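ESCALATION

Customer reports they have been waiting on this structure for their group meeting. Please prioritize. Original submission:
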Amino acid sequence: MVKKTSLIVAAIVALTITSSQEANGAPAPPVNRGGSKAVRETHQIRSSVNQLLGWRVGVSATVFRSLTFSESAALADALGLGSIEGVSSQKVSPQIDKDLDFHLSPSEIATVKARLTELNLKMPAYHVDAIPSDEASSRKLFAFVKEMGAETIVTSTMPSSLSAVDKLAAESGVNVAIESSDDPKALVRAIGGLSPRIGVNADLGKWIEHGIRPVEGLSLLKDRLMVVRLRDRNALGANGRDVRLGTGVAGVQQFLLQIAQQEPPPQEQPDKCVNCSRPYGGTKPLFIVLDLDPWQITTTREPQVGTSGNAFADLWQAAEDFEKVVRPAMGYRVEQDARLIPITPTDRIPADVKTKIEAALPKALVAPKKPRKLLVVDVAPAGAYYHDTAAHANFAISKMAASTGAFEAVFSNDLNNLKYPDILQFDAVFLNSGDGPVFADPDVLNGLIRFVRGGGGVAGLHGASYASMDVPEFGELIGAQSGPHHVEKATLKIDDPDSPLTKQFASSPLTAELGGKGFVYTDEFYHFLPSGPYSREKLHVLISIDADKSDLSPWHVRPDRDYGLVWIKSYGHGRVFNCAIGHTPTLFETPALSQMMLNAIQFVLGDLPADTTPSAMLAKKRR
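Update from on-call: job pushed to the front of the queue and completed.
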């Protein structure tokens, strides 16, 4: 009988997470004290890598060696991971004192599946020491794994009959990954004539212990790799020790990049797609297990209740390290996507809408100090939401450039333009509603950040604040990141009517009804979360939702009811503008708003000076 109670489990989770993170000097993740629902933050690279590359990242359920599967699942969720590997020798839960295997009753299986559902976890792989040699038991195993929704059976032992296992794999649609803990040459030869359903579980830690560098082993496996256990060690051979991912001899960053380079290339979207002209992913599923050497789990920190050493703290660190080493692989995939994503053409815009945009074209407030060049990017990679109104913005910007002569607009989704020093050929970058993992490649993001910090400019329109929500550095640059939204009508107020970007509103018919201080508008308004970077302590807010005159009853997002939509800020020696409006076509059809966008472009180009003092500081000065 398993003796742990739910109360003890909650204490284990809370104590493990809190003391582990405090000891690690890192902020504690959300604590699943009751263990009854998912608590993880989904906007993290450790989870978003699945959408981009088809890779699920998780842990083995037995890494918390004294806990049941149900308890371990709560910790996997608290680690911010969306996947867990089931293990046949582990007890199911404090209430079900049985091994997690095909002997479970239908109701017990339903309980396990319900547990995964409530934690929003997937079980991509299921581990057994050996696949049964008798056909009846083997069939029960495959049927159980399929019922659990797992893609792959992982086994530590070479099956007695590979042909029989291959046949069952084909019939059931369940893969089999055979562990490779030493030289993979013999294993690759053994499975070479079998179907693609038979593959390899690569244990990098054991490879290194046997003197095998991971990139060398990968070159042998090719498309047979199904599961990889990530560990890094300080030296090849048995005398080495485990170290943090990316700091040892494993070459994890290059290993993951080479896997990405082996993936099928992205394809154009099929005709049935409702959000087309973006690339359609051709990724091959892979399960990545963040692994720990059981004999080297850190024990120098606070002792933990119910766990060996401090597995949670070490795994949390491993997840953070993984997010660093995987980004070049993600960046490679985004670059491949971007090659298939031309700048949104303007020929899809109806003729009458083009006429409205042209009628609303503004005049430049100032003459450029020198010839200016604006790079416009609207890339939305990896199946991200594609905004049709990107076309309207491209059309308006091209017409503004032609009619005012204030700048030259260069339209390109080649992300190499954002890398340093290539980005220096531009004066500013306009991010036109491109969302998704645009800045997965560190070189792309670092190039943009260095450019703006050194005196360049960046403007974001609508979906720009939803680009790379798993990369906090981009959120800090643009000023906001993530928030619930839908198209609605609201009253907007002009927070700074004296700014050169907004002074036209005072005499605009748009604001006449509200005395030049605001206007009623319909768009998709983002309600930025209080946990994100949006703050009047950092931003000079120009336009926001008037909470007193708008129906905010559907939204319970910010206690302060502060929903800024348009702002500017200084960033180092550079300039940032962001407009969260722009989901609907009317932005560039409305003269005052179109004027604001041209003013913003001249601001980020460096020609139109504007006060970027954070709004909170201005409010304090006025008291």
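Sent to customer with the following note: Confidence is low (pLDDT under 50) at residues 1-34, 270-278, 295-308.
Escalation resolved.
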